[in-house]
Amino acid sequence: MKTRYLASLLLIIALLLVTDTAQAHANLVISVPAANAVLHLAPEEIRLWFSERLEPQFSSITLLNSQGDRVETTASLVDSVDPTQLSVKPPRTLPNDVYTVSWQVISADDGHPSKGSFSFTIGDTDRAGKAVNLTDSSISVTSAGIRTFNLWTLALLVGGIGFWLFTWSPAVPQSNPALERRMNILIAVGWVLVGFGSVFMLLLQTSTTANVSLIEAIGSPILGSIIVGTRYGLLWMVRVALWILIGIVLWWPTVSKWRLWVALVIGVGLLLTNSLFSHASAASDETATVFSDWLHLLSTALWVGGLVQFVNVIGALRKQSPSATGTAARTVGYFSNYARICVVSLIITGSYAAWLQVGSISALLTTLYGQSLLMKLIFFLPLLGLAAINLFVTQRKLNAGESLWVGRLRELVGVEIILTLGVLIAVGAMTSSSPARTAYAAQQPSDSSAAQPTPYSDMSMLDDVHVGFDVVPGWVGVNTFTVTLATFEGAWIPDATLVRLRFESEDNPSLGRSELKLEHTQDGTYTARGANISLPGKWKVRVNIQRPNAYDTVTDFFPAAVIAPQASDPAPPLSDRVVALSAVGLLGLIAGGYSAMRSSFRPLRADALLSLGLIALGILMLLSVARLTG
Ligand code: HEM
Fold first, then answer.
1. Which of 390, 479, 515, 541 could anchor a disulfide with 394, C-beta 3.0 to 4.6 Å?
2. What's the confidence (pLDDT) of residue 15?
3. Is residue 583 over pLDDT 90?
4. What pLDDT sits at residue 1?
5. pTM over 0.90
6. Residue nearest (by alpha carbon) to ligand 1 atom 31
């Protein structure tokens, strides 16, 4: 029997090793200058828009010339207003050449690294390189392994406690010190392993952020700044604090059932720290989506951890009293009571997550994330079958007093545990890779007909002043406005006391005027950012310049603005979100309501608590619908 378990375990790991490569997160949505752009002038700024919020400390742009030499720029800056934007300012005097913009970012939403590059050309086009928008990423087995270990140990700890409270205590009311000691040991092992899991997860985050191996991450200088300076670090510290708290509670001298309840509640909080850093936290309708992921994780923990604790006690029970069929039957009964609602909750929250993160059959079949999910479902289906056998056959046989089935029960649960391990390894690969929706969108050829950024640049000469005027990216919305002043002899004018822009929409005169004062930055350059160009169409921008001992200079420019293209935003459209949220919301309410009635609302039962979770999920989903359609 042992060799069969070992063989199937090795088979599962081997199967998943072949699915190793994947795509990473925080994808580049659009850039100014655009990939392959050919510019006449050096860009005032290089700005990149990403699909997720960025960690300022660990996100950067490097500019290289065609020789591969690094070009000095200002420090990379994550926009304080919109942290999905990253920018640098190159020198104003960039010579004609082909430049490569190489970027490396860490998502503040789910901590995953991604990097890539593209190029643009200043001056003659024939040297323009046809660089593509490269997003290179691969995920080592280490990442999937550590995430699987993390999920499994969380399940062992929380599910181990849950089994004792929701299955063993009601099924075996009289004390059984030997078996309780066994359960305590398994929970203690789970607690210690979660401690290791926390360290491994931090090292994994450091190694991917610093691009070093796991071993090198131990001594990496940025480990400290990740802990104290990033959202991931904050959540990690909360996780460790909760872990220590559980340890104190578990080892509290007084042995009472309340100790287990307190530990369980803290354990459920611990799971939340994991969900707050999963793909769900980077998705739309964040509150409902993170809650759904949390419920998914909690159902997993109670089911999978419960199965391990089950095998742990049923073997010893059989040794203690070979004819313990009654106890075994009651244990199966209580466990199945909440395993059933765990499975229902997993299917409801899993289907929502699958819709959100995958979204189409082609994304399911052509991306690694999608293939990992398929792998997961391949392990899940037989799992359902086995659970049904235990519910409908094993329990009946045990109730009939057939002691042979106590041994069979242990074997069946053993196979279930192996299959759940397969499911969790697939989840390890999924949570280590870019969601299928994003990866699939990135695989699609970029829509060349989409409107490209149209930076506006013009110059006028009046009195004794050259006035240059740039608007970047030239779309409706937030733009960077730059006025460059120089004398006819070519000397910069750095001492203007006022450089003010007055905006009027030529196509919508009723809009009225708005103003923007520019700040001096360097040489004869004055800049400011603003959303004054708020509608598409032609605009009149009056530039008013005041200089000491000189008459005011006033000149007009006429940029035309277009709506910024929503380039390949993989997020699901609003209409689909409303349908999905409504469907899952109703399902949650119906399934939660039905099983709450079945549990006759006895609050301290797992099925009642999980039903409450499903009802809360339903309410949160429908509240999101109300907010979206409100
Ligand atoms: C219909 C069946 C299921 C579907 C469609 C499904 C789908 C998903 C999806 C799409 C995710 C999101 C992964 C991510 O963060 O990108 C997920 C997460 C997860 N699933 Fe499932 N799942 C199902 C059943 C199960 C089962 C049976 C288990 C365990 C036995 C399980 C355990 C997990 C775990 C532990 C996570 C990670 C949650 C996190 O990191 O916060 N799932 N699932």
1. 390
2. 46
3. yes
4. 47
5. no
6. 300
Here the tokens at position 186 are 């398994």
Whether residue 174 is found in the same domain as residue 252? yes
pLDDT band, very low/low/confident/very high, at 225 (cuts 50, 70, 90): confident
Going from the Cα of 283 to the center of ligand 1, the distance in angstroms, rounded, reads: 15
Atom 1 of ligand 1, residue of closest alpha carbon: 347
Distance 350 CA to ligand 1 centre (A): 5
Q: Which atom of ligand 1 is nearest to the CA of 420?
A: 30
Distance 427 CA to ligand 1 centre (A): 6
Q: How many C-beta neighbours within 10 Å does residue 240 have?
A: 18
**Both 546 and 572 in a single domain?**
no
Å from CA of 466 to ligand 1 middle: 62
Give the Cα separation of 474 and 490 in Å (integer).
27
The reply to whether 336 and 225 lie within a common domain is: yes
Going from the Cα of 70 to the center of ligand 1, the distance in angstroms, rounded, reads 43
Please determine, for residue 449, whether its predicted confidence score (pLDDT) is greater than 60. no
488-500: average pLDDT: 87
Residue 74 has pLDDT above 60, yes or no: yes
- Cβ of 427 below 6 Å from ligand 1: yes
Nearest CA to ligand 1 atom 40: 278
Percent of the chain with pLDDT over 70: 89
For 532, other C-beta atoms within 10 Å of its C-beta total: 21
CB 438 within 8 A of CB 570: yes
Q: Indicate the residue type of 455.
A: P
Q: Which helix (H) or strand (E) holds 618?
A: helix 606-629
Ligand 1, atom 43, lies closest to the CA of 350
Residue 199 lies in a domain: yes
Take atom 21 of ligand 1 and give the residue whose Cα is closest. 350
Secondary structure element (H or E) that encloses residue 417, with its range: helix 404-431
In angstroms, the first-to-last Cα distance of the chain is 59
Q: Judge whether 441 lies within some domain.
A: no
Residues 224 and 259 occupy one common structural domain: yes
Does residue 243 sit in the same domain as residue 338? yes
How high is the mean pLDDT of the chain?
83
Q: Does one domain contain both 17 and 54?
A: no
Please give the Cα distance from 333 to 330 (Å, whole number). Answer: 5
Q: Name the residue range of residue 41's domain.
A: 26-134
Number of domains in the chain: 3
**What's the one-letter identity of residue 289?**
T
Number of Cβ within 10 Å of residue 349's Cβ equals 28
Give 198 Cα–ligand 1 centroid separation in angstroms: 20
* Distance in Å, CA 296 to ligand 1 centroid: 6
Residue 393 confidence (pLDDT) above 70: yes
Q: What is the pLDDT, as a whole number, of residue 23?
A: 44
Judge if the beta carbon of residue 430 lies within 6 A of ligand 1: yes
Q: Does position 162 have pLDDT exceeding 70, yes or no?
A: yes
- Domain identity same for 158 and 128: no
In the chain, the percentage of residues whose pLDDT exceeds 90 is 33
CB of 120 sitting under 6 A from ligand 1 = no
With a 6 Å cutoff on the Cβ, whether 298 touches ligand 1 is no
d(CA 351, CA 158): 23
**One-letter identity of residue 538:** K
Instruction: Specify the residue with its C-alpha closest to ligand 1, atom 35.
Output: 297
The pLDDT tens digits for 235-284 are: 999 999 999 999 999 887 766 778 899 999 999 999 999 999 888 887 87
Q: What CATH number did the domain enclosing 116 receive?
A: 2.60.40.1220
Residues 54 and 78: beta-carbon distance below 8 Å: yes
